Amino acid sequence: MKKIVILISGVGSNMQALLEANLPCTIAAVISNRAEAEGLETARRHGIATAVVSHKDFADRESFDAALAGAIDVYRPDVVALAGFMRILTTGFVNRYRGKLVNIHPSLLPAYAGMHTHARALHDGVKIHGCTVHFVTADLDHGPIIIQAAIPVLPDDTEHTLAARLLDQEHRVYPQAIRWLCQDQIEVDHHGHVNFRSPRRVGNTLISPGLE
Ligand code: GAR
User: Fold this and answer.
1) Is residue 16 part of a domain?
2) 212 lies in some domain
């Protein structure tokens, strides 16, 4: 069975979704860069090993990433899942876990890479927003896309309501992506596109606002 290590920085609701999805893999550990991350307690309650590698203890990104890699490699994971892990990783770190490192990002990439995705979507008046699970590459938030979920932006949405509605979808697609990875369903072709080894269901069309 494949092994996963999950990296978090905060609440860890995506981590919790992974812990509770009955995935066909072993969740070996949850590691946080913040000792006060709420998700650490959730992981412990689920009987998962936890560790903290605080970025504040290191002078630069390279030394932090080296220590983080040391903590991860104890578990020899097949997959390293970033779940609200809010640190930019060095190219060296990303390359070390090439093909194993995945992230969930709260936008329909390649739109709204980076921070404040919900506020930027609201500011632009887009009618559809979403989230993306993707492989992590050195190009921030631009790695091969595994799965995306789209939601309508409602007229009275605030950053908070939009984020909360999207989070519900994040909790659906991230376990699905990890499940495919654990089942060896995914390959990345020479275009950097994700293909599936066997056919997948087609998703639904979302039109927002709806047609009348
Ligand atoms: C999630 O919305 C995730 O997509 C986002 O942080 C939140 C973490 O929530 N990640 C990023 O913005 C990464 N750039 P959680 O701790 O409850 O899973």
Assistant:
1) yes
2) no
The label of the residue with tokens 């060095």 reads: 90
pLDDT range class, residue 107, cuts 50, 70, 90: very high
Rounded to the nearest integer, the mean pLDDT of the chain is: 97
Share of the chain above pLDDT 70, in %: 100
Residue-number span of the structural domain to which 14 is assigned: 3-196
pLDDT tier, 137 (very low <50, low <70, confident <90, very high otherwise): very high
Locate all alpha helices (DSSP H) within the chain, ordered by sequence. Answer: 13-19, 38-45, 61-73, 91-96, 117-124, 159-182
Residue 76 lies in a domain: yes
Pocket perturbation via mutation, ligand 1, pick of 11, 14, 82 by most ligand atoms within 8 A of CB: 14
| 71/49 Cα distance (integer angstroms) | 11
Q: Which atom of ligand 1 is nearest to the CA of 131?
A: 4
Domain count along the chain = 1
- Asked if residue 12 has its Cβ within 6 Å of ligand 1, the reply is yes
CATH number assigned to the domain comprising residue 65: 3.40.50.170
